[in-house]
Amino acid sequence: MTVRDEVTHAPFRTSQIEHAQASERSFAVLWVLLLCQTGSLLIQVLAACMGRLNAGTGAVVVSGIASGLTYASVLWALTRPQLARAVRNTAVICLGVTTALQLRVMDPLMFRGYDEQLHLRTLSDIDSSHGLFQRHPMLVVSPRYPGLESLTALVHQLGLPVLVAATVVTLVARLVLVLVLCDAVEHLTGSPRKGGLAVTVYAVSAQFTFFSSQFAYQTLALPLALAAVAFIARARWARDPRPLLIGATVCLLAVAVTHHITSWLTAVFLAVWAVTESGGQARRRVLYGAVIAVGATTTWAMIQWSRLREYFGPIVEDEVSQATSGYRRKPFSDTAGYLTPGWERIFLVYYALAIALVAALLMLTYARSVLRRMQRYAPSSNSRRWEPRALLVLLAALLPLTIAVRVMPSWAEVGDRLSSFLFLPFCLLVADLGVRWYQSLPTQQSQSRRRRLTMAVHFPALLLATAAFVGGTLTGNGPDYERVPGPYLAVADGRSMDAETLAAVRWAGDELPAGTTIGADRVSSILLASQAGLWPVMKNDDKALYVPRLYFADKWGPEQSELARGLQVQYLYVDRRLAQELPHVGAYFYKGDTKGDPKAPQQLTQAELTKFDNVREISTAYRHGPISIYDLSGLTGESKAGWFGKTPAIGVRIQLAIGLLSGLALALIARTNARRVVTEKIKSFQIAAGLSLTFAAGVATLCVASVMLLLAHIWLGPIVFLSMALAVLLVNPRWAKFLFLATPPLMNGAAGLLMNGAARLRWKKRIAASGMLFVLAIAQSILSAYPEDVTKVRSILDDPSAVHMPVHNLNPAGSANGAR
Q1: CA 576, CA 508: separation in Å to the nearest integer?
Q2: What predicted TM-score, i.e. pTM, was given to this entire model?
Q3: Does the pLDDT at position 816 exceed 80?
Q4: Helix (H, G, I), strand (E, B) or coil at 554
Q5: What is the Cα–Cα distance from 449 to 72, expressed in whole angstroms?
């Protein structure tokens, strides 16, 4: 090579070296990020183990460290001077998935959230009946918005266990949330960094790490609603808006059948947006989305109106009562007298102040920009228009109010739910303001000064943001006893689901017929409904009959017998540990269940909980330790409610026939011109929407399709899907050959894509080591929960000293009463 050639190729060599160095730095950031995420998961597992060993405050502190490490490592990666798109995407995915897994590793063998158990009951009814709209004993509106449960049932039909299918759907919803939010902010602002930072700001929301990670309908509805808004935002100026508007329509339909409040708020937002949007095609396309949202939401709500009124009526009355009566709860405490530790109070107060100050800063910044425009364009009438940006600022300004209303117990939940929606415009504005501030720093003329100023601000900002995230986590996750495992506590949701409770519920599910009516406390009721398939009875407002009166009565007399007959309660579940303390969530059964002052709840006594042993007409069906299940059929007779029929059976031959015929039809269609047309449509949709919105549209399509299949009582099993795939491969042997030969190269190609072409073995080893630590964390969490959830439950059921009477052998006269 001549000197001339060397000079000619010098820039090319320089660019190669710079590219290699940039790749090296990106891999280093990726490895540190993945290592921190895996480490935070391991620390969270350690917190769970410490909680089960009754470590108390120590377990809570370790859990807080795990949450802080998760957030700090993601924010550190997203604020690096050079941000590669691979690093940005990995950080965003980690923030969505790791926080959800941290909630799940606390007990990977069962869902311990109260709302999760409510939706598991709806899922159980769908699985048992192969249909929709079965009555729900605890949450009447849940079966009427079955999008989440229907999608989970579809995943379950692939052959996955129910718990695994529910976890998969939850993680998919989390991915949709963070990816769509990141993509939408990047599309609106034109900055990839702003998209990633917006996700970190949204993660500060009190609902992000807890409620939005649960198996609950808002977890799926919120990301699909955000996807619909993102579709419409892209469609405003698109040359061909049809694919985008179709995607928005599918997402809005999925939201309408998944969650009532999310669908209503989405429709209102789109309607206001259509009014404030500038004229022309942009307004028409936003108006299209608003019409679809309002039409779908209104139509579905009208169909479910009776259930919605039954569900929201008591809630509205309770909110109005607390607002007008002036009732306030004692700060940093619950009804059982539990006090929040001092270090947590600091984080909670800091979180509230930080949100209020940032919201005030956004309003001040926007007001200054409006004043500058008014001074510059004073003669113009357009300078005073209320633009969509003002709408976003107004919504973000409402966030401090959602924190202020937490002084009232019932309004606290309303504030937390609203914050999930108000944080969406808030995160967009904060990310935009932060990046614009960074870009306003001195440029190339004083690069060293810019670097020093950035470093001086970066570390304190990282600490302050992480502290706000921890404060938001503490605010949304509730008291300490709801965040980490530990000994039994009275009516404390997950902490009330110990081995004794689970064993009694397991016995009831095995021995009592499905749909049997039973009275129980708040937490045991939902477990008996979701895990045992029974029908818990709380009250009958039409006849002014209430189950708590059976428990709070000093003795059993004719009045209690009449009450039991009127309620048609066949069994009573009694846990004598309820007399040890006041309920932690405010009531043993439901709000206002006691006959005392609601500001000073009445505590149950041992005498009230043992009076059933001395009644001749009541027999003991189950007893172990503090828990007894009493049979009242001698008083009330047999009683059933809800779904208690036989599960429709689909024979193996029928499933094989359906799968083979469907696979044959798909394979034959693939040989026609329809395959090319469908492929082109999907490609054009992906080009217009992007990968994130295409993923969201696919989830929404599956959600709507699963609801339609269940409405038609069509239930597919794993044999159907396997035989369908077999038929397709048999008709198209080239596909089978391609699949067999292409799998190893595709796996190697995926690994190469992850490494971006850098053949550096040490990075592969480090990433593989991080993956092994991740698997170890999941395995350890399962091993930690197994003794409490399985071993102890089995030993209780096998205990020969316990009363485990077969139902058909019970004597209505009470011969089994008091047996040991």
Answers
A1: 18
A2: 0.89
A3: no
A4: coil
A5: 25
